[in-house]
Specification:
By secondary structure, this protein is mostly helical. It contains 12 helices and 2 strands, in the order ααααββαααααααα. The chain has one domain.
């Protein structure tokens, strides 16, 4: 438990202190956000706010993981390193997108195809490697089975299909987090709640691991390295809340695609390696809702040749266009995220109790 707490502490201090330094450097370099002129007019005043703050979250999380292991003399594990690979890899794709926006002085970076290719390459490498590295019991970081609260034994996918499934999860979650990142503190607060929930799930899976002979076989969890995954999840929780100090309205810095793609990738990695892939749809419900709102808007617009379901998508902008204050939208979405997290944790625990 000490290493988990240290991971959270180092992650929190890393962004709480590091973001202040990053703001000064980014302002000095003139690396500010370019705002779309077709969005809510209130957002035009945000033009020039430093962006690429997600790089601070990435660095703080990686350092928190390494320092927690250094202080407790615990060796890194395959699961922890693979999760960080997906997190950093997708963050690098987001960094390229942010850099192009800044260098071209416009609100568009990588085109959608290039971004998907980048996400796909990182996710494929992660998925292939995650099916390797079995521990002494033969458990790999990821499995070929589709999972809900644990692997579904009747839904095991062929190798290549399992890789495609994991790539889909990574792309869906990273893009969902990216779409959610549109208001001051929205994505950061929601992500902090999700990672806190995964910390709880990982700790519980560690305590009820099948690796321990005194745990009932019917309810134990076949998860490789749940303790190490908890360290990463806690480091991410601390990093998100430390960054929120500076990202809360009015934001002094934006995370940019560097942060949102990385965060979405971390959620996907945790879902895959904790065997809670379908549960993550509820756990990260805000990401899913925001993505669906865009899909519905685009589909309906094309089908009706110009009509819209929402005033603007993603969904948080719809409520802004209806006259809700930005802070009101953010806090209410945080509440919804909390409800999703509580419901998911309730399902997770209930399944364990019923299965005893």
């Amino acid at each position: 438990m000490i290493s988990i707490l240290l991971g959270g502490l180092f992650g929190l201090l890393g962004t709480l202190l590091g973001t202040r330094v990053a703001i000064g450097l980014l302002v000095k370099k003139g690396y500010g956000q370019y705002v779309r002129d077709d969005g809510p007019k209130e957002h035009l005043k945000k033009a020039g706010t430093p962006t690429m703050g997600g790089t601070v979250i990435i660095v703080a999380t990686v350092l928190a993981y390494l320092l927690s292991h250094l202080f407790t003399l615990r060796p890194p594990t395959a699961s922890g390193l693979l999760l960080l690979f997906l997190f950093v890899g997708l963050g690098f794709v987001g960094f390229l997108d942010d850099w192009l926006k800044i260098s071209r002085a416009r609100s568009l970076g990588l085109n959608s195809i290039s971004k998907l290719i980048g996400q796909g390459v990182v996710a494929v490498v992660f998925a292939v490697l995650a099916l390797q590295f079995p521990d002494a019991r033969g458990v790999t970081p990821a499995s070929a089975a589709v999972s809900f609260l644990r692997d579904l034994p009747w839904l095991v996918l062929p190798g290549i299909v399992a890789v495609v499934w994991m790539v889909f999860i990574a792309a869906a979650m990273s893009n969902g987090a990216n779409l959610t990142d549109g208001l001051d503190g929205l994505a950061t607060g929601v992500s902090g709640l999700i990672f806190a929930a995964y910390t709880v799930i990982n700790i519980w899976q560690y305590n009820q691991s099948c690796a321990f002979g005194n745990v009932a076989r019917a309810t134990c969890y076949e998860v490789r390295d749940p303790h190490d995954l908890a360290i990463v999840a806690m480091a991410l929780t601390g990093a998100c809340f430390g960054f929120l100090w500076w990202n809360a309205s009015p934001a002094k810095i934006f995370m940019g695609d560097s942060g949102s793609l990385a965060i979405g990738g971390a959620v996907a990695g945790l879902a895959i390696m904790t065997r809670t892939e379908l549960l993550s749809v509820l756990l990260a419900g805000i990401f899913v809702i925001e993505t669906l709102s865009v899909m519905l808007q685009v589909g309906y617009f094309k089908a009706t040749k110009g009509k819209r379901i929402f005033k603007m998508a993603p969904l948080h902008h719809h409520f802004e266009m209806k006259g809700w204050a930005e802070q009101t939208v953010v806090v209410r979405f945080w509440i919804l995220a909390g409800i999703c997290v509580a419901a998911a944790l309730g399902l997770f625990y209930t399944e364990w109790v019923v299965g005893r």
